Structure formats: structure tokens, C-alpha cells
Amino acid sequence: MSIPFCFRYPVRYLIKMELPLPYNPQGYPPYVVYASWEATLLITDGGTSVPEPEEDTADLDGWDVGGTASTPRESSLLIQKPYHRDEIDEVRQGSPLDFSFNRLKCLDEIKVENPRSDRILKCPPLGPTSLYYSRSLWLSYNKLTSLRGLVELVNKLLEQPLSLAWIDLSFNKIRCLDDELFLIPNLRTLYLHGNCIFSLVEVSKLRKADKLRNLTLQGNPLESMHKYRSHVVNTLPQLTKLDFVVVCEQERQILPSILPYVPPLP
């Protein structure tokens, strides 16, 4: 008498996709994107079968710096490509990508091949797909009123888009913070000083940027409001520095005694 058997093996599928750039006058190679999902492989006396995945776990950015699959994360819409070990230092040491002082009114006007090099003496190094190795994007001293197209721009500029950690948007004409700003998952430093932000409601949107540590808002109309700094620090507990001044623990401790007596902000 034969004894039926059944073995279950968890498997992870990985597929590779090549996505052409929407704007590609220079004929750059396409982006390489990886997607993965999990299923269970069944081996029985009747043969081998692969059932459908129990749920859709497609993951476009679950690839760590070592080049192995990692736990799926919430998609940021930024394209993640596998790091090679020799690329890590290039990204960390890359100069800021500087598009300041260009009188830009919208992000679509940026010419990928023309970053400034006079302020920082050199441009960031180029990667294998002729995109830049950098963790910093400078867009200061322009005429930007909106951040629409930010994610597309970052994908178009950076060899490793998810490495972006610092965006300088100072001295523009920004009134509202577009949702695209919160799709930069590793953003740690954001300069917004010298803009046109009036409301603390706009600042409160930055709670979504849970890795944000360094923020500037001075020079906005918001700064003239009573106890402006206390309100911002209370609204964004993840900050360690505001307007180039460290947020110390003592400052946080006295917030409850200050804020109840402050007139509500509009």
C-alpha cells in the first residue's frame, strides 16, 4: 500500500522589468525595476504544483544594498535598483545635484544634463546608466510654486532614487506642500526657508515624513505667528533641528506648559 505524501515549500518569485524613460532625448538605457511575490510550492505523489499567491505582495522597492530580496515595503513610487557594493561609497560621497538660481517656475523645466558645478566645484559622479550618484538635490533660488513632478524628476536624475535624503527648496514661492514630497521615503533634511507658507496646517503634513530630522521654515509668513517655533516642534516630534537650531530635550519638556496659553493658530 502506497502512502500519499505532501511537502510544502515557501518560494519567492522575482521578475526583472525594464522601463523606458518618458523623457529620453539622450537615449539613456531604461530603468531596471524588480518585482517580487511569495507563494507555496506543493510537492505530492501526484506531481508538483504552484498555487496562486494568497495575496498580492508585489514589491518594487524590496531590494536591499546587498543585492538580496528583503521584506516588502510600502511603495514610494521611486524606482529602486539593486546596489553593487562599489556603488555605496559613490552615493554617500556624491556632491549635491545643484539646479539653483535657474529661475525655474516648474520642475518640468529642469534640463537633466545641465546641473550647476560652480557652487560646489564639481558635479556628482555618473553611474552606469548615465544618471547621477547623489543624496542631495538643490532647487533653491528659483520661482517654484509647486512640487508637482518631483518623483518623476528624481527618477530621471538619480542612479539610486531611494538614496535621496536632502532637498533644498529654499527661496522659492511655495505655498502648499504637495503630496509628492512625502513619497521620498528617506528624506532627512528639508530646506523650505524663504517661501510663502502661511499655515501650520501645511507644516503638519510633514508628519508623514517620519525620517525627517532637519527642517527650515524661517522667512515664511508662518514665522510671524505667536510661538511659531513651539508650535512647529510640537507638531513635528520627529525633528532634531529646526531653522538650524537643535531641538533639545528641555525644549520639548516645557512645551506642555507653553502651548495651552498660546492663542490658536489659523
TrEMBL record:
- Recorded superkingdom: Eukaryota
Q: Where is this region: Disordered?
A: 46-71
The Acidic residues compositionally biased stretches are 52-62
Annotated Gene Ontology cellular components are: cytoplasm
Q: InterPro entries, from UniProt?
A: Leu-rich_rpt (IPR001611), LRR_dom_sf (IPR032675), U2A'_phosphoprotein32A_C (IPR003603)
For this UniProt entry, what is the primary localization, expressed as one broad class? cytoplasm
Q: Where is the signal peptide?
A: none
Q: Which PROSITE patterns match?
A: LRR
Q: Where in the cell is it found?
A: Cytoplasm
Q: What is this protein called?
A: Leucine-rich repeat-containing protein 51
